[in-house]
Design goal:
The structure holds three protein chains of three kinds.
Chain A: E1 3-13, E2 18-28, E3 31-33, E4 41-44, E5 49-52, E6 54-59, H1 64-71, H2 74-77, H3 99-108, E7 111-119, H4 124-133, E8 138-144, H5 149-156, H6 160-174, E9 178-182, H7 186-190, H8 210-223, E10 230-233, H9 243-251, E11 263-265, E12 273-274, E13 282-283, H10 285-294, E14 298-301, E15 308-314, H11 317-327, E16 332-335, E17 343-349, H12 354-369, E18 376-377, H13 391-399, H14 401-408, H15 430-445, E19 463-465, H16 479-487, E20 491-494, E21 497-501, E22 504-505, E23 514-519, H17 530-539, E24 559-564
Parallel strand pairs in A: 1-4, 1-5, 6-7, 7-8, 8-9, 9-10, 10-11, 11-14, 14-18, 23-24
Antiparallel strand pairs in A: 1-2, 2-3, 5-19, 12-13, 15-17, 16-17, 19-20, 20-21, 21-22
Chain B: E1 2-7, E2 17-18, H1 24-29, E3 36-39, E4 42-45, H2 46-49, E5 50-55, E6 65-69, E7 75-76, E8 86-89, E9 105-108, E10 124-127, E11 150-153, E12 166-172, E13 186-191, E14 195-196, E15 206-216, E16 221-228, E17 233-240, E18 249-258
Parallel strand pairs in B: 1-6, 2-7, 6-8, 8-9, 9-10, 10-11, 11-12, 12-13, 13-15, 14-15, 15-18
Antiparallel strand pairs in B: 1-5, 2-3, 3-4, 16-17, 17-18
Chain C: E1 2-6, E2 18-23, E3 26-31, H1 35-42, E4 51-54, E5 57-60, H2 63-75, E6 80-84, H3 90-103, E7 106-109, H4 116-125, E8 128-130, H5 132-138, E9 141-145, H6 149-152, H7 156-159, H8 172-175, E10 177-182, H9 187-190, E11 194-197, H10 203-214, E12 224-225, E13 228-229, H11 230-242, E14 245-250, H12 252-255, H13 260-275, E15 279-284, H14 291-302, E16 308-309, E17 316-317, H15 324-329, E18 335-339, H16 343-346, H17 349-357, E19 360-363, E20 376-378, E21 389-392, E22 398-401, H18 412-429
Parallel strand pairs in C: 6-7, 6-18, 9-10, 9-14, 10-11, 14-15, 18-19, 19-20
Antiparallel strand pairs in C: 1-2, 2-3, 4-5, 4-20, 7-16, 12-13, 16-17, 21-22
Helix pairs in contact in C: 2-18, 3-14, 3-18, 4-13, 10-11, 10-13
Classes of the chains: A alpha/beta, B mainly beta, C alpha/beta.
The complex binds iron/sulfur cluster (SF4) and zinc ion.
Residues 58, 60, 117-118, 266-267, 314, 381, 384 of chain A line the site of zinc ion.
């Protein structure tokens, strides 16, 4: 039995309502315990900021699309190379780094849990294979349902239970964690080179609308009693004027769950655009935040853009094609039969570019205008808005209005007329940052019950100790120390084991994959449904027997959350 | 300061030496004993691979001249990131000589292997022999090749000369291989003899083929011809590549053979 | 006993609908497979025991001795080369990468001899593609360029294109048009609606001409391009633009002919241009069953799909320099490990000569041309028959091949892991 005692920690643990107290943390056999014996290994935190391990609720680090981003980008690979260290493999890559680079860099930032934002069910094995190498973080996969034919057919038949049955079967089959919907209907239309313009546009052949897909999936999600809510990437990403579509989607969201939000909207920065074209493009973060403040049933992540080089990658195939026509850089696309799509292009967000400057402002505005930090999570849609290594800079921007002003002075001079940022003087404190980088995520993902995202007794011993001393630092002035401090933990501890010290990581952190298995009666088991089976065998290019992800792809200590359902 | 490096006989002479440390800057900033090169997967002292004779002093890179003696065709990356000074290579030189170079002069008396002057931004390379493929090109996946500087080849060049070139000048006194100036955006390439399939997919820049241009693409538009007094020759003028959305490249060719 | 839905580990189609009859622990029948699959599943020839070379003779030995010898060869090499990987399970590929990282060698897979140029092109301009089922359900125009699927990928047309059922096509076979582009007539061109015969080496010019025509610049195109008439080019451009969903597949006839990766780049850019008019995708006809898997595994572990040099401890990638054939040609490596492939049969003579000069380790169930040069050959279980393991189809769909009969062989993964462990021990001893 391993025991660890962290002494003298300045702890913020929002889920347990600890808002900054010097205390000791005991970890026994991977879990937080009440106490440990005298023989426990001791770490002296020396009063440094100590938080539950970070949780990223939306990132792209594993799977077909991510790997294709690497595959097509040797120029990105050479931008982040590192030699092997005693307990680390060599690494490559900046915006789409190798699996090892991702897992090392996340652990250096104190993250111990990550959710891959988009996994096509047909290609799920790939995501799980990469999860195997992402060994310093526990992993989960959002599973794509935006263009799932069986779902769309069931929606068209107005058969909610069938929608839920298909979703439940698929999640269990591919060992996914949550329901992801990317540009609902749009990815199916992209199969014909088209897109949907608003949530009420009918989808070819299926005759249903994005709004209906969202509505049914939200209800099916609750019927399946899944830990996380539906995770939505709205229609019309990146188009001027798309905020109306976003607002209406928010407006339509029911409040169906009292433990967490009913809808998680991701990278909302990309969906808060006013204007009609790039010429009159402007921020509508105020309207989106106004709505969010009235809708506790919704949680969002920022989708913050940071200046510099990165790679955009999403299941939203048509959007990537639009970006390609805008930037004329290399473009990859990968449609997945009967399910979804994806696209990838490299981009450069420039301070000198007005549109990019406005985008940068919008993300910050969303965070600063959302009253309740539990509703707005810090993320960049890694690597779409920026690689996650930029998180510390975003933290500093949220904590220091002085830093924001200084940065604002460096961006395109016309930005001021199109955004609200200069008028916002809110400065977040460590508690709010702790909420926005782990606690809110864990709550939104519904994984606090299994012991993630907090330091209560029985929780996993996931802890990040940052070289930041609350009393010695004024984040508003010393923002560069904030950046430094959040960039490199003194200790990152996962399941009671130190996995990273000052960025020196372990080869293997014995990560776990968290997945769901809704309990569904035989009546609703799609494996027994002749129509489903027939269509599967006829139109997929693999047989149904070879579709489910085998046990071999699960790490040893994977966590299966079985849910009681209404089916 | 003058540094004379003579390559020693090696047990496995074909194992490549990676010697990006052979630049005026390293000799100015480091003790010779501290300079290392790589032989396969082993880091070795420079002096294990080369006999080193150092004479004179220097205050700046400009005053440093490095002379490489012997057959250095397995020595890669010489003069990488060179900013100033001079490197004289008496025989052949291996791949990636003068990569990322921004100033100074590299003179090669023998042949140079592929990727000569890759991604250079300034300075000058003169190769008195032949050069391999990808002279003055970019890196895999990168959008641009060289952005500045000058490369002169006295004999022939291999394939993909000046790929994705975005500035600077390349002169080949002999012929080039297949596809010089592919994806070219800016800058000038002059080939005194022949070339095959010049400038495919070019968007900008200028390329002269003063001998025979073989297989000019059907997507180049001939807009006329001129007598070029510099080269004392009648040249056909083409615009292209019309396969591309932007096609502001100019190709001047002597005798041509359009495919 | 009959096993159904067995995955064929022969070509990049990874057909997963084979029925295999097994009697007394032996395969006696194959249903649904093509002739290539039958040969693979019913093949009898194989190496039964590890062999090592002693002087001029080859001797049978035990796994332990062979593994020991392999480790011995590799541990002190200054520039070991690890080549092959397209015919083995993903798990073994991953182990191979770790071994190469440990030893500071170069690792390359057989892409460098087949679709390496396609990868270089994709790195320049990207890749608008899709899974094969997307083509099957939607495409009303199929183009095969520089490939002859009926011989190289015999079931490609029946499972994924011309003869497959398609959800959005009432009568798929009649509604789908087929264009074949090649330098000569083939079995596949015989069934095409339109056959474009190009003079050898003329693909690039034809692709450029098509791009210009699609962009409305047909005026400048001459009456004939590389032996193809302008009227045919215009007709083909129209067919592409009018299709609801077009899918272009290309093979080695395009990647390995003159202009290599620039051909593929041009084809991708034609696809980009057509995507402004309709739905269009492009895909490579990957040959070996798990060559795409090798690209995927190498990529997530090292950042690059093939040709990775770890000599400096940091991955470096530069095909043309770090590719196996070039390294052998320049005699750079001082040891070679070949896994599930036959470089001696496919590389230039000068490369093969160097194989004779250096120690060669081979991990392969079968003897092949490379075996003439090996100092140690270690037979392994055949993935997809005697061992299970991950494979990636030519379109990136990952599948788990199955173990369908028992055999007394170690898997590639086990053999490589044991070599790795042995070297770690040896290094620790020093
Ligand atoms: S087409 Fe290829 S994968 Fe399919 S059965 Fe034939 S050899 Fe096997
Ligand atoms: Zn995302």
């Amino acid at each position: 039995m391993s025991e660890l005692l962290i002494k003298n920690a300045y702890v913020i643990d929002p889920i347990n309502d600890i808002k900054g107290e010097i205390m000791d943390i005991a970890i026994k056999d991977r879990m937080i315990a009440d106490s440990v014996s005298d023989s426990a290994e001791v770490i002296d935190a020396k009063g440094c900021l100590t938080l539950p391990g970070g949780v990223d609720s939306h990132t792209h680090i594993c799977g077909t699309k991510v790997n294709f981003g690497r595959y097509m980008s040797p120029e990105d690979m050479r931008a982040g190379r590192g030699r092997a260290q005693p307990h680390m493999y060599p690494v490559s890559g900046y915006s789409v780094p190798t699996v090892y680079a991702n897992t090392y860099r996340y652990s250096a930032l104190g993250y111990t849990t990550v959710l891959e934002g988009a996994m096509a069910p047909l290609e799920a094995r790939h995501t799980h294979e990469e999860f195997f190498c992402t060994s310093l973080q526990d992993t989960m996969a959002n599973t794509l349902f935006d263009g799932n034919w069986s779902v769309m057919e069931a929606v068209s038949d107005k058969d909610l239970k069938r929608v839920a049955a298909v979703v439940g079967w698929t999640l269990a089959a591919v060992k996914g964690f949550a329901v992801k919907v990317t540009n609902p209907g749009g990815t199916e239309m992209w199969g014909w080179g088209k897109d949907v313009g608003c949530i009420h546009q009918k989808i070819d052949h299926f005759g249903i609308t994005p709004a209906e897909i969202i509505e049914y999936l939200i209800r099916a999600n609750e019927l399946l009693n899944l830990p996380h809510s539906v995770h939505l990437h709205c229609n019309n990403l990146g188009k001027p004027g798309n905020y109306k579509c976003t607002l209406e989607t928010m407006q339509r969201t029911p409040n169906l769950n009292d433990k967490r939000q009913t809808l998680y909207m991701t990278h909302v920065q990309f969906h808060s655009y006013g204007g009609t074209k790039w010429g009159d493009f402007c921020s509508k973060a105020d309207d989106i935040a106004w709505m969010l403040n009235r809708k506790p049933q919704i949680a969002i992540d920022m989708g913050q853009v940071m200046f510099g080089k990165t790679t955009t990658m999403t299941a939203d195939g048509p959007m990537e094609f639009n970006l390609y026509r805008l930037y004329n850089n290399k473009w990859s696309n990968h449609d997945v039969e009967l399910e979804t799509g994806s696209g990838i292009i490299p981009v450069f967000y420039s301070r000198k570019n007005l549109v990019n400057s406005v985008m940068w402002s919008i993300g910050l505005e969303l965070a600063l205008m959302t009253k309740n930090p539990w509703q707005c999570m810090l993320a960049t849609d890694n690597p779409n808005g920026a690689p996650f290594v930029k998180y510390p800079e975003i933290i500093a921007l949220l904590m220091s209005s002085r830093y924001r002003d200084e940065e604002f002075a460096k961006i395109h001079p016309d930005t001021g007329k199109r955004v609200h940022l200069p008028s916002l003087d809110r400065e977040m404190d460590f508690y709010e940052i702790a909420v926005m980088t782990r606690a809110a995520q864990a709550k939104a993902l519904g994984i606090t019950d299994i012991g993630k995202g907090h330091l209560g007794e029985g929780a996993y011993g996931d802890v990040a100790i940052y070289p930041i001393k609350n009393n010695d630092i004024d984040p508003s002035r010393d923002y560069s120390k904030i950046i430094e401090g959040f960039s490199l933990t003194d200790y990152t501890i996962k399941s009671g084991r130190v996995i990273s010290r000052h960025g020196n990581c372990l080869l293997n952190g014995n990560n776990r994959t968290i997945w769901v298995k809704p309990k569904i009666s035989e009546e609703y088991n799609m494996s027994n449904d002749p129509e489903f089976v027939k269509k599967f065998e006829r139109y997929y290019s693999v047989s149904m027997e070879n579709y489910p992800v085998e046990e071999e792809y699960m790490n040893k200590r994977n966590i299966c959350i079985e849910t009681e359902t209404g089916l | 300061m003058k540094i004379e490096l003579s390559i020693k006989p090696r047990e496995k002479p074909f194992i490549p030496i990676e010697a990006e440390s052979i630049t005026p800057a390293s000799f100015l900033e480091k003790m010779t004993e501290d300079i290392t090169v790589w032989s396969g997967n082993r880091e070795k002292k420079l002096t294990e691979i080369f006999d080193v004779k150092k004479s004179g002093n220097a205050d700046s890179q400009k005053d440093v001249e490095i002379i490489l003696n012997g057959d250095c065709s397995a020595v890669k990356r010489v003069g990488e990131y060179m900013k100033d000074g001079k490197i004289s290579i008496m025989g052949n030189i291996g791949m990636h000589c003068g990569n990322f170079m921004s100033g100074g002069l590299i003179e090669i008396n023998g042949d140079s292997d592929s990727w000569l002057g890759r991604e250079m931004t300034g300075g000058e390379i003169i190769c008195k022999g032949n050069t391999g493929d990808y002279c003055g090109s970019g890196y895999r996946g990168e959008k641009t090749g060289i952005k500045g500087g000058k490369i002169t080849i006295m004999k022939d060049a291999g394939d993909y000369l000046g790929e994705s070139m975005a500035g600077g000048e390349i002169i080949v006194n002999g012929s080039s291989g297949n596809m010089p100036g592919s994806e070219m955006q800016k800058g000038t390439i002059t080939i005194y003899k022949d070339a095959v399939l010049p400038c495919p997919n070019m968007r900008g820049g200028i390329c002269y083929v003063l001998g025979e241009a073989k297989e000019i693409l059907p997507t180049f538009k001939q807009t006329g011809s001129i007598y070029n007094s510099d080269h004392k020759r009648e040249l056909n003028i083409y615009e292209g590549d019309y396969a591309n959305r932007s096609h502001k490249g100019k190709l001047f060719a002597g005798k041509t053979n359009k495919k | 006993m009959i096993k159904k839905n067995v995955i064929c580990s022969f070509c990049g189609c990874l057909c997963d609908d084979l029925s295999i009859t097994i009697e007394d622990g032996k395969i006696t029948g194959v249903d649904n497979g093509c002739a290539l699959a039958n040969a693979k599943f019913l093949g009898k020839e194989r190496l039964l025991k590890p062999v090592i070379r002693e002087g001029d003779s080859i001797k049978e030995t035990e796994y332990n001795t062979a593994i020991e010898k392999a480790a011995d060869i590799l541990k002190d090499a200054e520039r070991p080369l690890f080549f092959g990987w397209s015919g083995t399970q993903g798990e073994a590929q991953a182990k191979g990468v770790h071994l190469c990282m440990l030893l500071g060698g170069v690792i390359d897979n057989t892409s460098s001899l087949c679709h390496g140029p396609s990868i270089l092109a994709i790195q320049e301009v990207g890749h608008p593609g899709c899974t094969l089922g997307q083509v099957k359900n939607r495409a009303d125009l199929i183009i095969y360029w520089g490939c002859n699927p009926l011989e190289g990928h015999p079931r490609h047309m029946s499972r994924y294109t011309t003869y497959a059922d398609g959800f959005f096509l009432k009568n798929a076979f009649r509604e789908r048009k087929l264009i074949v582009v090649d330098v000569r007539k083939t079995m596949s061109s015989d069934v095409a609606d339109e056959f474009i015969q190009i003079e050898p080496g003329g693909d690039y010019a034809v692709l450029s001409a098509l791009r210009a025509i699609v962009r409305g610049e047909e005026k400048i195109i001459p009456e004939s391009v590389s032996g193809v008439s302008k009227s045919q080019l215009k007709r083909v451009a129209d067919m592409c633009k009018e299709a609801r969903f077009g899918a272009l597949f290309f093979g080695l006839g395009l990647t390995m002919s003159k202009n290599k990766y620039k051909n593929i780049r041009n084809a991708v850019e034609l696809t980009d241009e057509l995507s402004r008019h309709t739905k269009f995708t492009i895909s490579a006809m990957r040959g070996h069953w798990n060559v795409y898997g090798a690209n995927e595994v190498f990529t997530w572990m090292t950042g690059y799909p093939y040709a990775i040099d770890f000599a400096r401890g940091i991955p470096f990638y530069n095909p043309g320099e770090t590719t196996a054939a070039e390294i052998l040609y320049r005699k750079e490596c001082d040891a070679l490990m070949v896994v599930s492939s036959d470089p001696a049969a496919h590389m230039p003579k000068k490369c093969v000569e160097h194989m004779a000069d250096i120690p060669v380790i081979q991990i392969d169930p079968h003897k092949n041309c490379t075996s003439f040069f090996t100092d140690v050959q270690i037979p392994v279980a055949i993935t997809g028959i005697e061992a299970s393991g991950t494979a990636y189809r030519m379109d990136g769909v990952p599948l788990r091949t199955k173990k369908i009969i028992d055999a007394d062989f170690l898997t590639d993964t086990e053999v490589i892991s044991r070599i790795y462990e042995r070297i770690l021990e040896a290094k620790a001893d020093v």
